[in-house]
Automatic annotation (TrEMBL):
GO terms for molecular function: transaminase activity. Keywords: Aminotransferase, Pyridoxal phosphate, Transferase. Belongs to the class-III pyridoxal-phosphate-dependent aminotransferase family. PANTHER family: AMINOTRANSFERASE, AMINOTRANSFERASE CLASS-III. Signal peptide: none annotated. The keyword Transferase applies. This is Aspartate aminotransferase family protein. It comes from the Bacteria. Its cofactor is pyridoxal 5'-phosphate. Gene3D superfamilies: Aspartate Aminotransferase, domain 1, Type I PLP-dependent aspartate aminotransferase-like (Major domain).
Amino acid sequence: MNTQLHSNALHELDRQHFVHPVSSWQGHEARGVRILKSAKGATVTDSEGRQLLDGFAGLWCVNAGYGHESVVEAAAEQMRRLPYATGYFDLGSEAPIKLAAELADRAPGDLNHIFFTLGGSDAVDSTIRFVRYYWHSKGQPNKDQYISVEQGYHGSTSAGAGLTALPAFHDGFGVPFNWQHKIPSHYLYRNPVGSDPATVIAASVAALRAKVAELGQERVAAFYVEPIQGSSGVLVPPKGWIKAMRDTCAELDILFIADEVITGFGRTGPMFACEEEGIVPDMMTTAKGLTSGYSPMGAVFLSDHVYQTIAEGAGPKAVGHGFTYSAHPVSAVVALEVLKLYEGGLFENGIKMGDRLQKGLAGLSDHPLVGDVRGRGMLAAIELVTDKDKKTPVPAELQAATRLFDRAWDNGLIIRAFPQGVFGFAPPLCCTADEIDAIVDRTKQVLDLTLEDPEIRAVLRG
Ligand code: PLP
């Protein structure tokens, strides 16, 4: 295949052959693809030579930013020396062992045991299997019901998509399964119980208790949360929410699984968002920032008691769970290098820049189209409305966030459009103050341009 294909030919090949993840297949045939060619720092260049500030760090994963030679060199050296080694059957290689130890060292509490996956979905799926194995090992095989939170996202394997609560991942796929249940989200901006933090926390605790009572405590195996619900539009719980949910699970003898696929590795400030409330989950899932997107990898962190219980339950038998590419040595060296970058200043910079980003975006709250600005650290979202007092959403058919995405792209900024007129930010932690200011300025320009859009004006109050 000629790699110097003219861009039009590439677009045509894409239409004909490349099935894009989480995209409208039909819409894609009509719209075509935007092709990225290269990147450095927080800036990406597309096939037309246009430079864009990546306000979403790829898919909230390139936390370290693009173009770090130390990472590239480490991966190349590992590929030359030992491109692959299995972790099956008591085999191993150096990098994943070192990485597991480094991660355990930094993990909250006794999350001392690391199982490597290829990304976030199979990390979540692995926990679903480990939870079942755990309760079997404890002689309570009837504990087989799982609870997660409305508007949550836990990946798109069959089982994980059932814990996810976004319609596009359910409709037509036959999930959720009958062992997967939900409680309402804490979604502060549109919570039927109001936005008072104590009331919202009490309502979530009550909802969890009620769901457990309905299913029978002896049947409930695990409860899944994201410290911040990412894919439904960066829904930040009130302070104290995650601790209250963790404590309730401990009291009810339910495993508590924190899905830190987005929030891990400095995205909200600390290494893991769980640290902000000093909680220790029974298991924790990570991916994305683990390798900063330079190569695929996820990790499940298992606490001492979960690990020991499974080990004892299995006895001399193999615990039959793993993937050919679990603990891939190239991804492991990448993760080790990325960790050095994070701790060599990027986490610190991310905290400063996160503060700047939140303040900058909060300054857009008065804009006539902006209903809510929310986030923590280098993770944020803006929710658009047509009437600020009534919080009226922009009619779905106007696809407000997608319009914003298109305009932002034309203005040299990549953001993420979510359904329901929400768009999000998750810039690389390496951003400079000027880059953060540019993200905010361009967002303001794009909001102003959207305000001039006749179709949007027509639905705007006043
Ligand atoms: N869990 C959460 C909280 C996520 O946000 C994601 C992806 O965005 C996943 C799981 C799935 O991860 P992946 O896309 O790497 O499979």
